[in-house]
Amino acid sequence: MTDVFETYLSSTGELSAEEINFSAQFFKPIRLKKGDFFIREDESCRHIGFIANGAVKAYAIDKEGKENITCFKFENEFATSFPEFVTQEKSRRSIRAIEDSVIYRIAYLDYQHLLGQVTAWNRVIKSVMEQEYNQKERYLMNYNNKSAVDKYRHVLSSEPRLIQRIATQDLASYLGITQRSLTRAKGQIHRPNIL
């Protein structure tokens, strides 16, 4: 088990050292290369994963076959399609590595067993779900019905790691604008002032 994961669990303040050690056996590491799927749209959502290293994007494919990216997850974050994981239904979105990644995943039955054995996990998952909800709320408030320049300006000030680690086409999809609009917005903001 990775120190990163154990450190994260310890930082929640919800689990004792014994509970962390017990929990560790249920999380199995997988290595994803950039482009590999963690979860595929229209397939059963069987796992929750903790990202120890790397990053993923979550997206759905629209009628025109275009990716609509809804979020990015990085180190020390959990990734899954929560509603479908809980109900064990087919995922409505894909989660795919955008960098080589190490993810510690737990299968649904092991997850159920763990919740039954270590009740503090209910509080950890509740906290993860609240973070997920807050992330979606912030996204709607900051990126809905705003100009490309305003969206890019917000990313610069509030989510700079997206600019550092996300490909331009993925960032444009996440912001709900075209790559051309994103390039123009970057040009407007970064253009030197000419006297």
Structure, explained:
This protein has 195 residues and is α+β, with helices and mostly antiparallel strands. The strands form 2 sheets. It has a 4-stranded antiparallel sheet. A 4-stranded antiparallel sheet has the order 2-7-4-5. The longest helix has 24 residues.
Looking at this protein, list some descriptive labels.
4-stranded antiparallel β-sheet, 195 residues, 9 helices, globular, alpha+beta, 49% helix
Q: Could you write a compact summary of the structure shown?
A:
The chain has 195 residues and is of the alpha+beta class. It is built from 9 helices and 8 strands. Strand 4 and strand 5 form a beta hairpin.
Mean pLDDT: 91
What share of the residues lie within helices?
40-55%
Structural class: alpha+beta
* Rg over CA atoms: 18 Å
CA distance, first residue to last residue: 58 Å
**Topology as a string of helices (H) and strands (E):** HHEEEEEEHEEHHHHHH
Provide the low-confidence segments as ranges. Answer: none
Tally of helical runs? 9
Strand content: 15-25%
Most strands sheet: 4 strands, antiparallel
Counting DSSP E segments of at least 2 residues, the number of strands comes to 8
Give, in spatial order, the strands making up the sheet with the most strands: 1-8-3-6
Shape annotation: globular
Strand and helix map with partners:
Elements: H1 3-12, H2 17-24, E1 28-32, E2 37-39, E3 47-53, E4 56-61, E5 67-73, E6 78-79, H3 82-87, E7 94-97, E8 101-107, H4 108-117, H5 120-143, H6 148-158, H7 160-165, H8 168-175, H9 179-190
Antiparallel strand pairs: 1-8, 2-7, 3-6, 3-8, 4-5, 4-7
